[in-house]
Specification:
Blueprint: E1 3-7, E2 10-12, E3 17-18, E4 21-26, E5 29-35, E6 43-46, E7 51-54, E8 56-61, E9 63-64, E10 67-68, H1 75-85, E11 90-98, H2 102-118, E12 125-128, H3 150-163, E13 166-170, H4 177-185, E14 189-192, H5 199-207, E15 212-213, H6 229-236, E16 241-245, H7 253-262, E17 269-272, E18 285-288, E19 291-296, E20 303-305, E21 311-314, H8 318-328, H9 333-338, H10 342-348, E22 364-367, E23 373-378, E24 381-382
Parallel strand pairs: 1-6, 2-7, 8-11, 11-12, 12-13, 13-14, 14-15, 15-16, 16-17
Antiparallel strand pairs: 1-4, 2-3, 4-5, 7-22, 9-10, 18-19, 19-20, 20-21, 22-23, 23-24
Helix pairs in contact: 1-2, 5-6
Length: 383
């Protein structure tokens, strides 16, 4: 059995910190967290302080490393995107295809089947569209949006069986309660997003098995005192998970702090980046469905906008969202780490990721005290 021992850093196991302990990894999986005076003979990795944590998990990544999934929905694109985010601590992600043609969706599904087997950080697939509401289109193309049909339900279920983890973002207006129930019972992770629905319509779909809400506050009906909208329903429903983009542009920190305090259900908000191709790239623009998206520098991080000023995804990486959470959202470091590890793993039902319990994948990240990434590991190997 090939063992490796990590010492010299505080260990965060997904729930709590361990001081003056060692992490023992065997054959790419966590064996134990042990006292330093009770260690087997093995290769030793000595870390210079900081924190050793499970690697970050990102459920919504449109691009990275200079590549957008929509431009080329292939295995190569998915691997480039995963590699582009790895220096920022992300060891598992869902490449995300935004609203596109049926042919693009089919190609993304076929690519995801192979990319997941490759075991290099692609943990599944996120299809964000085309079943969204034109009234809340954001940067998506409204002309490609349409309701869910029975053939789509069957295709999603087949894709989930082949890929393992499939997340679909659907507007409540574009899917029936019965369709949500069928998808959920077949293991498809349904998230409501890009929707102008009422709180009642959202709650019906949550009760039918819709598991989450895509980028809370963005591209959805807002919370009013008599019409709570999708935002109100998401915050109030105890079993509903909510992804949030913490980049200083998508949502005011006051709104995020309010949601963090108000959300029913413990640990139900988690970080997503909604990142585009410029993360891990020095370019300042790219094209999205034939439209130019440009990087505007300034603020906590750069923002990405279309020519009319519409936000088009983010330019943030996962370690930056953790720093943002600690600095602007009043989060403890432990909770900020959970929102990038344990909580997204639970949302996506990735049982062996997001924590450092015995048997978990040894996907790891080492952070300095200033919350910068020094090294990431996939299955115990430096990546």
């Amino acid at each position: 059995m090939a063992r490796k021992i990590f010492i010299g850093a505080r260990i965060f196991d997904g729930e709590r910190f361990h001081d003056d302990k060692a992490l023992i990894v065997a054959d790419g999986r966590v064996e134990a967290i042990a006292a330093g005076n009770d260690l087997p003979d093995a290769e030793t990795v000595t870390l210079a302080g900081g924190v050793l944590s499970a690697g970050f998990i990102d459920a919504q990544v449109n691009g990275g490393g200079g590549r957008m999934l929509n431009d080329e929905p292939s295995v190569a694109s998915m691997e480039i995107i995963a590699q582009g985010h790895r220096p920022y601590g992300t060891t598992s992600l869902l490449p995300t295809l935004i609203t596109d043609t049926a042919e693009a969706s089919i190609a993304a599904i076929e690519a995801a089947i192979e990319a997941v087997r490759g075991n290099r950080g692609v943990a599944g697939l996120h299809l964000e569209g085309p079943h969204l509401a034109p009234a809340r289109k954001g940067a998506h193309l409204a002309e490609l949006m349409r309701p869910v049909e029975d053939r789509d339900v069957k295709a999603f279920i087949r894709a989930r069986e082949a890929i393992g983890t499939l997340l679909v973002t659907i507007a409540a207006e574009q899917v029936t309660v019965a369709q949500v129930r069928e998808l959920a019972e077949a293991g498809v992770t349904v998230s409501i997003g890009h929707s102008d629905c009422s709180s009642e319509a959202a709650a019906e779909r949550f009760d039918a098995g819709a598991r989450g809400v895509t980028h809370l506050f963005n591209a959805m009906s807002q919370m009013g005192h008599r019409a709570p909208g999708l935002v109100g329903a998401a915050i109030d429903h105890p079993s509903t998970w909510c992804g949030i983009i913490a980049d200083g542009h998508h949502v005011d920190p006051k709104a995020l702090r309010t949601a963090l305090r108000a959300k029913r259900g413990e640990g139900k908000l988690f970080f997503v980046t909604d990142a585009m191709s410029l993360v891990g790239s020095e370019k300042d623009s790219f094209t999205l469905n034939g439209r130019t998206v440009r990087r505007e520098r300034g603020g906590f991080c750069s923002k990405l906008v279309l020519s009319d000023g519409t936000l088009a995804g983010s330019d943030v990486d996962m370690i930056s969202t953790i720093r943002y959470g600690v600095t602007y959202l009043d989060l403890t470091l432990a909770e900020a780490l959970r929102m990038a590890t344990l909580y997204p793993a639970r949302f996506l039902r990735l049982a062996d990721r997001g924590h450092l319990s015995p048997g978990a994948r040894a996907d790891l990240v080492h952070l300095t005290d200033a919350l910068t990434v020094t090294v990431t590991w996939l299955a115990g190997e430096a990546a």
